[in-house]
Amino acid sequence: MNEFTVDDLTTILRECAGEDDESALDGDILDVEFGSLGYDSIAMMETAGRIKIDYGVVLADDVVLSAGTPRELVRLVNLTMVESS
Amino acid sequence: MSAVVVTGMGVVAPTGLGARRHWENTLAGRTAIGRITAFDPAGYSSRLAGEIRDFVPGEHLPGRLLPQTDHMTRLSLVAADWALEEAAVDQAALPEFGMGVVTASSAGGFEFGHRELEKLWSRGPEHVSAYQSFAWFYAVNTGQIAIRHGMRGPNGVLVTEQAGGLDAVAQARRQVRGGTPVMVSGAVDGSPCPWGWVAQLSGGGISRSEDPDRAFLPFDVQAAGYVPGDGGALFVLETEQGARARGVRSRYGEIAGYAATFDPPPRSERPSTLRRAIELALEDAGLEPSRIDVVFADGAGVPERDRVEAEALLSVFGPYGVSVTVPKTMTGRLSAGGAALDLATALLTLRHGEIPPTVNVTSPVPDYQLDLVTQPRRRPVSAALVVARGHGGFNAAMVVTR
């Protein structure tokens, strides 16, 4: 399977947890905390659910919640993808 | 005890978004009841509702809130925004726990739940939104309003079906009297989805008429059920002194009296306690019945319940003793939101000195001896009584004064 990118993540965030305005997730958000982007723990659970459905990657709840930034979450998804392939 | 007044109002109703539009349409007697558009009602025994059709959530709310909110929660958030905006509350000037929210709900976020149940059974549990955990919940409107405005004071929800709108405002009045400077209260409700519809139908009493002008006829000889709808109103409550101290010049009125009673179980020999609720509310307001200028009746539209309400009004006010109106003949019954919308309409009546009409009722039951307002009446109104009855035995009565 292809690598999971930050663009894939922002698409999912937009679709399943919403976005305050059209450009909030544009630009360099890799190292911005999810909290600062406006995404709380339930938004992260929702995001993890969509990652599982779309990419078949199962992340444990505590793992998802431990990812503080998009860069970290993208890394965890790719790591899990490699481990399970 | 200090007077608790309404300094802000947010109306979201089938008759209009915003208090002004709602008032104009209500006064003009424009009904908002029509065939259901939220889903195809063809396969159901009842097909009419009072729907809010011109609400575009994205025009009023940030995108982040949309995936996590039910229809009635979105409407609630907008109503709260409008009420707070009108009251011009300066949150920075209030203590950390100085603002609270009490709303009423009858079923929670049914439409949201309907969609998630559909995903559960058609696609599997992993497709169910994590937001279902709270989006369905009775208290969700209170919670979302509190979070949006940082209102960390006393928060709660009341679930007393159609009586809820009044019960919530009464609870908020208690909190204001108890020292919370500002409370947001009222109710916005509605379940415009097949699941919600089936739940409503199972309760009985819903009109099967296909004619929007003949479906909901409270107190009429042809009364044969009611029409459900969605919407309601939220208010900002504070003490009169508090409002004056922060420079508020205009207010809608005072929540002057309130009482709630509970009816005996079905098939009991004992009579309804509705009369007692009305009498206690008047007593709480310190007003004789003759001081009430208009009654906003519950108007069940079901003959047996109409009779109970008419008898209560007759015994308190005497034959044709007070103007009685049922503007919800234009919206249908909005579950918890219904009495809140009536309260809004009552406050607007105090402000404008014009009593809005009951539409479509052409043949009131003569025995009821009600002075039913079927054309708008222009006259000074200084006190109004709102009556609400909830399925399951809930009675509530509230007096508002100018």
TrEMBL record, chain A:
It holds the Pfam family PP-binding. InterPro entries: ACP-like_sf (IPR036736), PP-bd_ACP (IPR009081), Ppantetheine_attach_site (IPR006162). Residues 3-81 form the Carrier domain. Keywords: Phosphopantetheine, Phosphoprotein. It comes from the Bacteria. The keyword Phosphoprotein applies. This is Act minimal PKS acyl carrier protein. It comes from Micromonospora halophytica. The lineage of its organism: Bacteria, Bacillati, Actinomycetota, Actinomycetes, Micromonosporales.
TrEMBL record, chain B:
Keywords: Acyltransferase, Transferase. One of its GO terms (molecular function) is 3-oxoacyl-[acyl-carrier-protein] synthase activity. InterPro entries: Beta-ketoacyl_synthase, Ketoacyl_synth_C, Ketoacyl_synth_N, PKS_Beta-ketoAc_synthase_dom, Thiolase-like. Coiled coil: none annotated. The keyword Acyltransferase applies. Residues 1-402 form the Ketosynthase family 3 (KS3) domain. One of its GO terms (biological process) is fatty acid biosynthetic process. Signal peptide: none annotated. Gene3D superfamilies: 3.40.47.10. PANTHER family: POLYKETIDE BETA-KETOACYL SYNTHASE 2-RELATED, POLYKETIDE SYNTHASE-RELATED. Belongs to the thiolase-like superfamily. Beta-ketoacyl-ACP synthases family. This is Act minimal PKS chain-length factor (CLF/KS beta). The lineage of its organism: Bacteria, Bacillati, Actinomycetota, Actinomycetes, Micromonosporales.
